[in-house]
Each structure stands twice: as C-alpha cells, then as structure tokens.
Amino acid sequence: MGLVSANDDHQLLSKIATNDGHGENCAYFDGWKAYDNDPFHPIENRNGVIQMGLSENQLSFDLIEDWIRKNPNASICTTEGANAFKDIANFQDYHGLPEFRNAVAKFMGRVRGGRVSFDPNRIVMSGGATGANELLMFCLANPGDAFLIPTPYYPAYDRDLRWRTGVQLLPIICKSSNNFKITIEALEEAYNKAAEANIKVKGLIISNPSNPLGTILDMETLKSLVTFINKRNIHLVCNEIYSSTIFKPPSFISISEIIQHLECNSDLIHIVYSLSKDMGFPGFRVGIVYSYNDAVVNCGRKMSSFGLVSSQTQHLLALMLSDDDFVGRFLRESSKRIGNRHKHFTMGLEEVEIGCLPGNAGLFCWMDLRSLLKEPTFEDEMALWHVIIKEVKLNVSPGSSFHCVEPGWFRVCFANMDDATVEVALRRIQTFVTRTKKGEALLKYKPWQKKLQLSFSSQTYDDGLMSPHMLSPHSSIPHSPLL
Ligand SMILES: Cc1ncc(COP(=O)(O)O)c(C=O)c1O
Question: Which domain of life is it from (predicted)?
Fold first, then answer.
C-alpha cells in the first residue's frame, strides 16, 4: 500500500496533474534548484551559489518597515489595531474591501504620474500577477486558442498562461539587431503563421516594462499594437507589474494613457498589475486585473474567489497606499536605489567589456555574453550557463529559457541582495570573464559530460572579498558589538 509508480500515477491522476505543462523542467527553474542546494552565505557558505535568478525588489524594505512601525493601527495584530480584528477576520467579499480597491486604484494612477485615473470598480483581485494572468486567459480564450507573445518572455508564462487553461503561446520573434523591439512585420508574421495553421488567435500579451529586457515600449509601438489588435478584433493584455521600477528617462507610458487618445474598442484592453515588484511584496500575493471590459470584470470577479487577497493584507495596504506622503517618498527613493544598483552593476560588467542591453526599468539586466560562446549555438549557451552555475556559482538565467532566438544572452537580477553580495557576484563575473578571455578557463563542459572541467577553482573568485569593512548596513551578517 502507498507505493505508486509513475505509470500508475498517470492513471490515477488527471492529465493536467501528470503533464509537463507547468514548464518547470527548464533551465530557469533548474538554476533555482542549484541555488537551493548550495545557497551563498557571507560567513557560513561563502563559496555557495549567489541567487541572481530571482526578480525581487529588496532595496527599500527599510522604508516599509519604518512606515509599519509608525502605523501600528494598520495591523490587526497590535494593541492599536486589535479592535478591527473581528471585522477584518470575518470579511470574505470577493469585491474586496472598498478602501483597498480605492487605495490600489489611486496608487496605480500615481505610479503612472497622475496622467490617468483608474476606477476602483474595475479592480479585480487575484493571487499575484500569476493568478491575474491565468484568470484573464480563462476569461478570454478557450483551450486550443492562442495568444501572441513577443520573445524573449518571462519563463513562467508557459505555466501561468497555458498549463491549466490549455491556451497556446505563439512567439513574435524579436532580435538584438533592433534592441529586441516589437515590429509590426514580426507581429503580422506570427499572426499569419497561426492563421495558416488554423489556430485561432484571441489576443496579444505584452510585458511593459519587459521582463527580461528591462526596456519599456515607446508611444509609437504601443499605438501600433493597439491599432493591430483593434483591426483584428483580438485582445491586448498588458502586464505592467514593473511600472514603477523605471530609474531613468524616458518615462513609462501605460496602455491606459494610449487608449485615452487613440480610437479603439476598449473592451479589448486589459491590464495585469501586482505589488510584487513595485513595492517588493511578492509574498503578499496581491495581483490585480484591471479590465475596460464590463463582462471581463464581472466574470473575473467571480473567478477571483479562487485567489483572493487575504483581508488582513488588504487592510494593511489600504492604509499604506493611501498615505500620500509615504507613497511619494517610497516611489522616488525606490527608483533611485534601483537606478544606483543598475548603474553600479553594469559599470562593473563594463570593466571587463561585458555589455547589457540598454534599459531603464526592471530589477535585472539582459547581459550579452555572446563573446564568450565558442559557437553561436544554444548548446554552447547551455555549456556556458552550466559553468556559470556550477563553477562561478552564480544563478543567472540563460536566454533560451526566455525563448530568446539568439544564443548568448542571460538575465541577471541585481535587486534581491545586499551591497556586499553584489560585490562578490561582480568580482566572480569579472574574474571569470577575464580568465575566459585569456584562455585560462576553457569551457570544456559538454551536456553529456557529468562533471565540468575548468582549469581553476571557484575558490579563487572570492579571495579577499569578504573583509568586514565591506559589509553593508543591509548585510545579513550580524555586526559584532566589538567592531
Ligand atoms: C512578467 C511577470 N509576470 C508575472 C510575474 C509574477 O508576479 P507575482 O509574484 O505577482 O505573481 C512576474 C514575476 O517575476 C513577472 O516578471
């Protein structure tokens, strides 16, 4: 009893439970596993893997913590806030607390520079942007229908948009020759290919700002996308979860601004939002669908029963996001800190002549390691990636896991760690690149070989790096009272 073989599983469980549609068997998630097995710690495991595959915004937590300390009434777990406990614990309405919807709508307007306003009655809750993306697919497409998506794209879309919905994703090929911009020609080509294959295209989904590129879409491109979908009467889903990570001009243009001035059927336009990136709250699972289509709002609200935001979280955020002074200060400071980190990191790469795609948003950069490939193939990209993970001990994510059509690009996250860890990571990359270019570190890895062979040890990457003076105020190392 209890011993079930994989074959039996296929009969016992559903097709969804046993298929591979979650897409978690790709390099992107393998890198996370490598980190989990050997995580870097500045004292206890200084040769461990540094996690640079996680797009988290940890740079401004001190501001949030400060606000929480000053506003104990925002929590139902404090003496000041306990009076609200009964009402909040009891609340279960899938419309959400009115004060939460009002605060989120106002926050979304603020992030977009006040150039556009959002109706709280159109805010539908979901479990993060992950839930919001899937919810929209359930509302807009039938199994077998397709959405067009520009490459490279966020790897977990394969799970979030396709796995349980049965929706297909059809790539729009973008290339480095024009900085991976979406062209109308590429869009038409993807659409026509689908038509030839008799696949029904229900829409186009974009991430603006882009994960993994760290770029934003310009006005002309946005207008051309709206014109395209309007002409074909298909949907446009805009994932804007990185909208306040912009750290230098030009400023972000939301799809909500475009449709104010361009004639189009707004029933086709839907925004996905979340507080996971802009505020750095992925654990709160606050996702939003903002649709201009009444039927989608109504249906989405009913579906949101499967992924509501806890009323305790709504209560806290309603107060935090309606504190205008705090929000203004947070948004300014957060984007300044992301910008400083980006500059520091990309300048460190430039020292060893490694470039990144020019970008002005996001919590990562799109690093160009094409010069380190022996041949421009995905096999060589994987070989290089294995060396970076296993020997250099950095979990960066290879472009192929983002469906990039050109080998040699890697996404590197830089906002999920403290200053001292960034220094260690930079030094490791610099040493690796220098030695590789000198031919000292030969990439001998072949996918079919179990053991990687390098001519030097990763031990040397960190030599002399972690002297106490390098620890930042955010370092996880406890400061000795004697120092
Ligand atoms: C483009 C994109 N969409 C969705 C998500 C998931 O966000 P959430 O944590 O809000 O579910 C991410 C997270 O990395 C993302 O980059």
Answer: Eukaryota
Cα(416)–Cα(45) distance, integer angstroms? 18
Residue 130 alpha carbon, nearest atom of ligand 1? 11
pLDDT at 463 over 70: no
Q: What percent of the chain has pLDDT over 70?
A: 88
Q: Which residues lie with the beta carbon below 6 Å from any ligand 1 atom?
A: 55, 128-130, 154, 207, 211, 239, 241, 274, 276, 282, 287
Which CATH number applies to 73-326: 2.80.10.50, 3.10.450.50, 3.40.50.720, 3.40.640.10? 3.40.640.10
Cα of 363 from ligand 1 centre, angstroms: 12
- Residues whose CB is less than 8 angstroms from the CB of residue 245 and which lie 6 or more positions away in sequence, other chains included: 57, 209, 277, 278, 334, 335, 338, 361, 362, 363
Phi, psi of 49 (to 5 degrees): -80, 130
Domain ranges of the chain: 15-61+332-467, 73-326
Q: Residue 457 has what pLDDT?
A: 39
Question: Which pLDDT does position 1 carry in this prediction?
Answer: 43
Distance of CA 130 from the midpoint of ligand 1 (Å): 6
287 CA: nearest ligand 1 atom: 10
Tell me the H-state helices in 290-418: 294-303, 311-321, 324-350, 378-390
CA 441 / ligand 1 centre spacing (Å)? 36
Q: Indicate the top mutation candidate among 58, 169, 238, 274 to test ligand 1's pocket, ranked by most ligand atoms within 8 A of CB.
A: 274
What's the predicted TM-score (pTM) here? 0.89
Question: Which of 211, 240, 411 gets mutated to test ligand 1 (max ligand atoms within 8 A of its CB)?
Answer: 211
- Ligand 1: distance of its center to the CA of 242 in Å? 9
| CATH entry 3.90.1150.10 includes domain 15-61+332-467 | yes
**Strand ranges in 379-444 using DSSP code E only, listed in sequence order:** 394-395, 397-398, 409-413
The lowest-confidence range among 8-22, 132-146, 334-348 is 8-22
Q: pLDDT tens, 300-338?
A: 999 999 999 999 999 999 999 999 999 999 999 999 999
**CA of residue 216 relative to chain centroid, distance:** 14
